[in-house]
Write a structure and sequence with these properties.
mainly beta; nine-stranded antiparallel sheet; Tachylectin-2, Chain A; Jelly Rolls; hydrolase activity, hydrolyzing O-glycosyl compounds; 47% strand; 541 residues
Length: 541
């Protein structure tokens, strides 16, 4: 065995968490033969339902997203952190089944969810037209029982003032042939005193039905709860030893917010739990990287309850006894040579389509036609990638000839419509092309006119945005080398915690998505302005 091969084999014995760094929450894990898949939430970003693939639970590669066009889901007008919540991926009778929730609201206790189901013979598609399921709650998931029946589970929402909005977990039969729900829904489980019972997944093992749920909300009080029953419809008894996994009361742990888990079984009978977690910059502080995906080893003795050592998330766990299967590393630089966007990129509220993205007119360039303002929710023009480390950067070269102040193109450190930093080219009233900086903190915009840079007579401009822990810095290159703008910007406003807003006890906004680095073009006059980006380089430092 070569030294490299031996090293790879040794590395494969340990899973290092998080396995999916940056914004990858609500994991649904699935094994089909020798292949493992992780599907995660994407909210207002396309492609929806991001999927990763592994052969050893250690090394993961991005396959892109399943919801690639409006046929599967239209996100025009989608609010911040609305859209695609908690997908569920299963495989039965030679078909992949994906259930996903489209959540439209937070206001006054209403969610306005709509659940959909699509199927495909292969994880790469083609995916069927969506089947519209119920809208009684979100976090819907399928369970395929041993007798051939299929059931849909979800949390049961109750909008009525004074009631528990998380009324429990309900179940209803799904007819795979008719592609429709049949019969009446039944309340399966009302949760524990921890509350906020959601994220159900049901399994059959050792003569029991096992119900895995998320409780405590998706922040610091999050946990994974296990209940079991001999009968499908219950009653379900809760594990007397408490939660399977949680970070509650352990601010010393690097992985916080541990919860929303799903189980997978390896060929040798071992069990693992995929779950979300956050890595705050300080104890119970800002999670700029968002909610990430981690995997824990589960001990499940015959006749007993599943257990995770200590009931807390570990940063490193023993991997299954499988051959190491690393994937080729993605190149740091995207030269935009392909016919489609690389899988590392996401687009905001509209798919990556030819009506605003062009990779053909100018070889090795990405042409982005300008879209709406930062608060526009129908047709923004933002191409971005997840921030995956506390120290990372995105660098690009842009060519842009703005006509007036309504046309802007540049680079951004972005969270949502209200929280972002943007370094951009535009045209000043005196006719000069200028480089300007603008920040938004919960909608309060801060310009930096003293930092304006004259960019006249420069055809190509280099731009760089860097996350340096709690600080964001911007640099530019007008042909004479890189120069840094002399201001340290607050990276923590690009966090889940900062985006959340509670008014009179009601959630007016949530933060579920984590930070992005991206290429942003605005054409507020709708005059057909576009910018050409020659390359984009992402590095983690």
């Amino acid at each position: 065995m070569s030294t490299d091969t031996a090293a790879a084999a040794t590395a494969a014995r340990s899973i290092r968490n998080p396995v999916l760094a940056g914004f990858h929450p609500d994991p649904s894990i699935l094994r089909v033969g020798d292949d493992y898949y992780l599907a995660t939430s994407t909210f207002e970003w396309y492609p929806g339902v991001r999927v990763h693939h592994s052969r050893d639970l250690v090394h993961w590669r991005a396959l892109g997203g399943i919801i690639t066009d409006r046929r599967l889901l239209d996100l025009r007008g989608c609010g911040d952190s609305n859209g695609v919540w908690a997908p569920d991926l299963t495989y039965h009778d030679g078909e992949f089944h994906l259930v996903y929730s489209d959540v439209a609201s937070f206001a006054s206790g209403y969610w306005d969810p709509q659940n959909y189901l699509v199927t495909a013979p292969d994880i790469a598609g083609p995916w069927s037209d969506p089947v519209q399921l119920h809208g009684r709650g979100f976090d819907a998931a399928l369970f395929h029982d041993d007798d051939g029946t299929t059931w849909l589970l979800s949390m049961s929402a109750d909008w009525r003032p004074g009631r528990d909005r998380f009324a429990g977990i309900e179940i209803q039969q799904y007819d795979r042939v008719a592609r429709a729900l049949v019969g009446r829904p039944r309340l399966l489980f009302t949760g524990t005193p921890v509350g906020m019972t959601e994220g159900p997944h049901l399994y059959r093992h050792d003569g029991w039905y096992w119900l895995i749920t998320a409780e405590g909300g998706t922040s610091w009080e999050h946990q994974v709860t296990v209940a079991r029953s001999r009968e499908l419809f219950g009653p379900y008894e809760v594990d007397p030893d408490g939660s399977l996994l949680t970070s509650v009361g352990r601010p010393d742990l690097r992985l916080q917010k541990a919860g929303h888990g799903s189980l997978v079984r390896t060929p040798d009978g071992g069990w693992y739990l995929a779950h979300l977690a956050g890595r705050p910059y300080s104890p119970l502080g800002s999670c700029v990287l968002g909610r990430e995906t981690a995997i824990q080893r589960v001990d499940w003795p015959s006749g007993g309850w599943p257990q995770i050592p200590g009931g807390v998330p570990a940063e490193e766990v023993a991997a299954p006894d499988l051959p190491a299967h690393p994937w080729p590393a993605d190149p740091a630089t995207d030269h935009f040579d392909g016919p489609e966007l690389a899988r590392c990129w996401s687009t905001l509220r509209r798919p990556a389509s030819a009506d605003w993205l062009d990779l053909r007119s100018r070889p090795s360039h990405l042409r982005i036609y300008g879209g709406q303002s930062p608060v526009g929710r129908q047709s923004p023009s933002l191409v971005a990638r997840r921030v995956g480390a506390t120290h990372c950067s995105l660098e690009t070269v842009v060519e842009f000839d703005p006509v007036d102040h309504r046309q802007l193109a540049g680079i951004t450190a972005y969270y949502n419509t209200l929280n972002w930093h943007h370094l951009y080219l535009s045209r000043a009233d005196d006719g000069r092309v200028v480089l300007e900086l603008l920040s938004s903190d919960n909608g309060r915009r801060t310009p930096y006119p003293e930092l304006t840079v004259d960019a006249c007579d420069v055809a190509r401009v280099g731009l760089r945005a860097t996350f340096d822990g709690p600080v964001v810095r911007f640099e530019y290159d007008l042909g004479a080398g890189w120069r840094q703008l002399p201001v340290d910007l607050d990276a923590t406003i690009l966090s889940d915690e900062h985006a959340a807003l509670i008014i009179d006890g009601e959630p007016a906004a949530w933060g579920f998505t984590g930070a992005f680095l991206g290429l942003w073009v605005q054409d507020l006059g709708r005059d057909g302005a576009y910018a050409d980006f020659d390359l984009a380089t992402y590095r983690e430092h």
